[in-house]
Design brief:
- By secondary structure, the protein is of the alpha+beta class.
- It has 17 helices and 24 strands.
- The strands form four sheets. A twelve-stranded antiparallel sheet has the order 14-15-13-16-18-17-20-21-19-22-24-23. An eight-stranded mixed sheet has the order 3-6-2-1-9-11-12-10, sandwiched between helices. The chain has a two-stranded antiparallel ribbon with strand order 4-5.
- The two termini are about 30 Å apart.
- The structure holds adenosine-5'-diphosphate, aspartic acid and magnesium ion (MG).
- The site of magnesium ion has 3 residues, from loops.
Length: about 600
C-alpha cells in the first residue's frame, strides 16, 4: 500500500478552521487509498510566543528547559488535529516525538536525529488510522525532550518519510511552492516546478526559509521526493528531486537578512591556528559561513567569517577566548550585514556568473564586503540596508522571472545513495545515524594557479571590473574570495587554470596599476583539495577535522570555501598529494 507524509506548517494550522482544513486534506489522501502520516508544527506564532515568555524571565534560559517549553507547541497541534480527524469521522492517533520513536543526540535546541523506530506508527497505520506526528521534537538517550532547531518540522517530516519509505512527502505551507527567491521580498519571483536537492539544500542553508535545510539532507540521502505546496489550495507546487528537467546557470537567489561578520585580526600565520579556531567554533555547534583568510603578510593574517546574527554573542565569546589563547591582535565584528547568494547547479559550466552578479550589484552602487564562491553558489556580503536592493538586482541580472528552457535528454544524475530496496540488515544500519555526515569523495585538483590582489580600493565596482576583464579573455575563474581588509582596502584571491595564468596576470597587473594597489601575488601552482558530501556546512565539525588533519601533517591552508555539498581548500602544490592522503584517511569511515 502506498504511504504519504503530509506536513502542515505553522500558518497552515494557525486556527481550528485551518486545522479542520488540513484534516480534510489528510482524509482525502486516505480515501484515495494511501496510508497517511500527518506532521504538524506549532499553531501560528506559538513557538515565538513561548520563546518570548522565557525571555521575559531571562535572556539565557537553560536549553533543556527551552526544549521542554517549545515542544509543547506541537503537542497542542497534534491533539487538536487528531480531534479534528475523529470529528470528521476518521480514525486517528496523535504521537509526540518520544512516542514516534524519534531518537536524537543530546544537543538541545539543535538536536540531530539518530534513528527512528517505525513499529508503533506502522501498527497504527495498519489499523487504518491516520498518524499525527509532532514535528520539531525528539527524545535523547536520557529520555529528555529535544528539538531540532527552528523550522525543524520539515526535517521531522522528511525523516519520517525516509524511515517509512513513503512514496511522497508533501510540505504544505503558505506559498505555492519554491520560488526563485522569497516571493514576499520580490513580487517578480517565479515559482519553479522542479528544483534539485543540491540547489534547494544550498538555497535553504543560505537563507531561503521555505525549507529547513537539514530536511533536504534527508531527502537527498534517502531519495525522498518532496512536494512543496500551498495548504490553502490544490494547485501543484514544486518538486524537489535529484534531476530536474530544467535548469539554468542560476536557479535561485537567497537573502540572509540577519548576519554578522566576525574577524580575528593579526593571527599568527602558521599551521594549526585555523584548526584551533574551528575546533572551538565546532564545539559550540555554531555553523559558520563565508570564511575568508587573507593571505599572510608579515607573518600575520586575518580570518573573517559570518554567522547568523542570533549566534553573534556566543561566537564572540568563543572568538575572544581563541584570540587570547593564540595571541591574535584583536577581535572585530560587524552586525549590520546581509548575505545575498546566487545558486545554480550549472554555474561551473557557464562562465560569467560571477561578473554578472558583481556588475549588477555595482550598478546599484552597493559595496561588497566579502565574496565567497563554491562550485554551485556565489555569496556577497553587503550592508543590511542594501540586502533587498542587492537581492532584486541579482534576481533581475539573471532574468529569474523568466521560465528557463527544458533540457532534452538530460542524463540522470547519480541516484540517491540509499534507494528504496535493501535487505533487512541494510535497513537497520541505514536508520542508525540517520543524520550522520556522509562523504562521497575527496579529490585533488592540480591544474589551477592562484592570484591575489592586495590593497585594492574598497569601493563598488572593483570585483565587477576585475572579473569582467578576465571573462572577456575567455578565462573561467574557479574559487573567489574577497575580504575588505584594514584601512579601507580590500583583497581578492582567485584561482584560474594554469594554462590561462599569463593572460590573467596581464589583466591583473593592468588593474593593479590603475587602482594603485600592490603588484599581484602569484602562486603559479596550487593544489585544490575538495571534500564532497551532503550537509557539510551544517555539520559544524567538518571544517575542523580537515584543518586538524592537515595541521597535524604541517600543511598550511591558503584559502577555504564551503558549501553544503563541498568544502574546498587550496594548499601549495607540494602538499597536494600528501594532503589528499591525509584527508582520505580522515574520512574513510564517513564514506558511503
Ligand atoms: P511554514 O510555517 O509552513 O513552515 P515558513 O514560514 O517556514 O512556513 O516558510 C514559508 C515562507 O518561506 C514563505 O512564506 C516565504 O516568505 C518564505 N520563503 C523564503 N524563501 C522562499 C523561496 N525561495 N520560495 C518560497 N518561499 C520562500
Ligand atoms: N514550531 C517550530 C518553529 O517555529 C518548528 C517549525 O515550525 O518547523 O520553529
Ligand atoms: Mg518552515
Amino acid at each position: 500500500m502506498s504511504l504519504i507524509v503530509q506536513k502542515f506548517g505553522g500558518t497552515s494550522v494557525a486556527d481550528t478552521q485551518k486545522i479542520l482544513g488540513a484534516a480534510r486534506k489528510a482524509i482525502r489522501a486516505a480515501q484515495a487509498g494511501h496510508q497517511v502520516v500527518v506532521v504538524v508544527s506549532a499553531m501560528g506564532k506559538t513557538t515565538d510566543q513561548l520563546i518570548s515568555l522565557a525571555n521575559e524571565i531571562t535572556d539565557r534560559p537553560p536549553s533543556r528547559e527551552m526544549d521542554m517549553l517549545m515542544s509543547s507547541g506541537e503537542q497542542i497541534t497534534i491533539a487538536l488535529m487528531a480531534i479534528a480527524l475523529e470529528s470528521l469521522g476518521h480514525k486517528a492517533v496523535s504521537m509526540t516525538g518520544a512516542q514516534l520513536g524519534i531518537k536524537t543526540d543530546t544537543a538541545h535546541m539543535k538536536a540531530r536525529i539518530k534513528s527512528i523506530s517505525t513499529d508503533r506508527m506502522k501498527q497504527a497505520l495498519n489499523e487504518g488510522k491516520i498518524v499525527i506526528a509532532a514535528g520539531f521534537q525528539g527524545i535523547d538517550d536520557n529520555g529528555d525532550i529535544t528539538t531540532l532547531g527552528r523550522g525543524g518540522s520539515d526535517t521531522s517530516a522528511v525523516a519520517l518519510a525516509a524511515a517509512l519509505h513513503a512514496d511522497e512527502c508533501e510540505i504544505y505551507t503558505d506559498v505555492d511552492g519554491v520560488y526563485t527567491t522569497d516571493p514576499r521580498l520580490l513580487p517578480e519571483a517565479r515559482k519553479v516546478s522542479q528544483i534539485s536537492y543540491d540547489e534547494m539544500l544550498e538555497l535553504a542553508s543560505l537563507g531561503a526559509g521555505v525549507m529547513h535545510s537539514r530536511s533536504i539532507e534527508f531527502a537527498k540521502k534517502f531519495g525522498v521526493a518532496v512536494h512543496v505546496r500551498n495548504s490553502a489550495s490544490d494547485v501543484p507546487g514544486s518538486l524537489i528531486i535529484e534531476t530536474p528537467e530544467t535548469d539554468s546557470a542560476v536557479s535561485g537567489v537567497a537573502l540572509a537578512k540577519q548576519e554578522a561578520r566576525l574577524t580575528l585580526v593579526g593571527v599568527p600565520d602558521k599551521p594549526g591556528v585555523a584548526m584551533f579556531l574551528f575546533s572551538k567554533i565546532a564545539e559550540a555547534k555554531i555553523a559558520i559561513d563565508m570564511i575568508v583568510q587573507n593571505i599572510g603578510q608579515d607573518g600575520r593574517t586575518d580570518i573573517s567569517f559570518t554567522v547568523p546574527a542570533a549566534d553573534l554573542p556566543s561566537t564572540l565569546e568563543v572568538l575572544q577566548m581563541v584570540s587570547d589563547e593564540i595571541g591574535a591582535e584583536k577581535v572585530e565584528y560587524q552586525e549590520n550585514v546581509a548575505k545575498v547568494s546566487a545558486v545554480g547547479l550549472e554555474m561551473e559550466q557557464q562562465g560569467g556568473v560571477a561578473k554578472t552578479m558583481f556588475r549588477a550589484i555595482s550598478d546599484q552602487n552597493i559595496n561588497i564586503d566579502i565574496i565567497t564562491t563554491s562550485e554551485i553558489k556565489i555569496s556577497a556580503l553587503v550592508s543590511r540596508d542594501d540586502g533587498p536592493a542587492t537581492l532584486r538586482a541579482v534576481h533581475q541580472a539573471f532574468k529569474l522571472e523568466k521560465v528557463p528552457a527544458k533540457i532534452k535528454n538530460r542524463p540522470k544524475r547519480k541516484a540517491a545513495p540509499n534507494g528504496k530496496h535493501h535487505s533487512a540488515d541494510a535497513e537497520v544500519s541505514r536508520l542508525a545515524g540517520m543524520e550522520d555526515i556522509l562523504i562521497e569523495s575527496v579529490t585533488l585538483n592540480q591544474t589551477e594557479a592562484q592570484i591575489s590582489l592586495a590593497n585594492i580600493p574598497d569601493v563598488p565596482g572593483i570585483a565587477a571590473e576585475l572579473f569582467e576583464r578576465i571573462a572577456a579573455g575567455g578565462v573561467g575563474v574557479d574559487l573567489i574570495v574577497q575580504s575588505s581588509g584594514r584601512n579601507g582596502k580590500a583583497m581578492i584571491t582567485f584561482t584560474v587554470p594554469r594554462k590561462s595564468l599569463d593572460k590573467t596576470l596581464e589583466v591583473a597587473r593592468k588593474l593593479a596599476k590603475k587602482w594603485k594597489s600592490d603588484e599581484p601575488i602569484v602562486k603559479p601552482s596550487i593544489a585544490i583539495l575538495s571534500v564532497r558530501g551532503t550537509g557539510l556546512r551544517s555539520h559544524t565539525g567538518l571544517a575542523y577535522r580537515m584543518f586538524k588533519r592537515l595541521a597535524d601533517g604541517s600543511i598550511n591552508v591558503n584559502v577555504i570555501t564551503t558549501s553544503e555539498r563541498n568544502i574546498a581548500i587550496t594548499v601549495d602544490e607540494v602538499y597536494g598529494k600528501k594532503g589528499l592522503k591525509l584527508l582520505e584517511q580522515e574520512f574513510t569511515n564517513d564514506m558511503m
